[in-house]
Amino acid sequence: MTDHREEQAASKVFPDFNFAEGELLLINKPYEWTSFDVVGKIRNSLKPLKLKVGHAGTLDPLATGLLIICTGKLTKQIDTFQAEEKEYTGTMVLGATTPSFDLETVVDQQFSLDNLTEEAIYSATAPFIGDIQQYPPAHSAVKVNGERLYVKARRGEETELRLRNVTVPAFEITRIALPEVDFRIVCSKGTYIRSLISDFGKQLNNGAYLSKLVRTRSGSFLLENAFEVKELVDYIRSKKTG
After folding, report:
1. Which residues are catalytic?
2. Considering the entire predicted model, what is its pTM?
3. Region 109-116 average pLDDT
4. Residue 171: how many CB atoms within 10 A of its CB?
5. For residues 207 and 199, what is the distance between their CA atoms, to the nearest angstrom?
6. What is the top-level taxon of the source organism (predicted)?
7. Average pLDDT for residues 8-17, to the nearest whole number?
8. What is the pLDDT of residues 22-74, one digit of tens each?
9. Count of alpha carbons within 13 Å of 142, Cβ hemisphere only?
10. What totals of helices (H) and strands (E) does the chain contain, helices first?
11. What's the CA gap between 66 and 223, in Å, rounded?
């Protein structure tokens, strides 16, 4: 099995891939693409090879950033890569909520920001650092009785959500320009940043929803070393016709 991760990280120069034997690809997922859209694009570019292609950790369509794609025999290690710690940067909007906790749905409640202080915003991160419990968003890919929650939510059905245990080693506020607040979060597998931001708004006796999210790291892999989908697909196709 080949492993070009160090080469990719060093220069972003395309190595001599061996997709059938197994490759780990760092991809910058585009805005409004699903993680499966990226997998499909890579898989289609590899035809007529019939290869297993999968991703190690879903990103919501409205999020961007690092998506790890595995091909061939390396797909057997997806669970290992998926279990690694993640890092995100993003922006939340205070003073309002949405049913999906992000921009997928429209604002359903608004709150005054008059009594919010910067000190209160910085202090409100403390309860969310360490081992915590959270509910997944109703608009999420979590399956209940074999059906994804977002499908039920779009039909207007209510589902009893189960608390899940996650770990958040770091939650930092990096910019305050109300109603916007920028943040950096380091978290374990399975953490929903949308839920964290929604709960953060409640901690302030206010409202909050996620307006921007970028995954900057997964384990030791960094977004700065990722390929754009188009440039990788174009390269793969050029090698087949060259």
Report:
1. 60
2. 0.86
3. 96
4. 20
5. 8
6. Bacteria
7. 62
8. 999 999 999 999 999 999 999 999 988 888 999 999 999 999 999 999 999 99
9. 17
10. 7, 15
11. 5
Can you read off the two tokens belonging to residue 103? Answer: 């921009």
Contacts of 15 (CB under 8 A, 6+ apart): 4, 7, 8
CA–CA distances in Å: residue 80 to residues 17, 77, 84, 128, 170:
22, 5, 7, 25, 22
pLDDT tens profile 147-185: 545 444 455 545 556 799 999 999 999 999 999 999 999
Beta bridge partners of 94: 208
Q: Residue 140: pLDDT band by 50, 70, 90 thresholds?
A: low
The two structure tokens encoding residue 23: 């490759």
CA distance 50 to 36: 17
Task: From 69, 81, 92, select the one nearest 232 (Cα to Cα).
Answer: 69
Tokens of 216: 């900057």
- What is the Cα–Cα distance from 41 to 50, expressed in whole angstroms? 13
Q: Please give the structure tokens belonging to residue 86.
A: 């993640």
Q: Which residue in this structure is represented by tokens 């039909």? A: 155
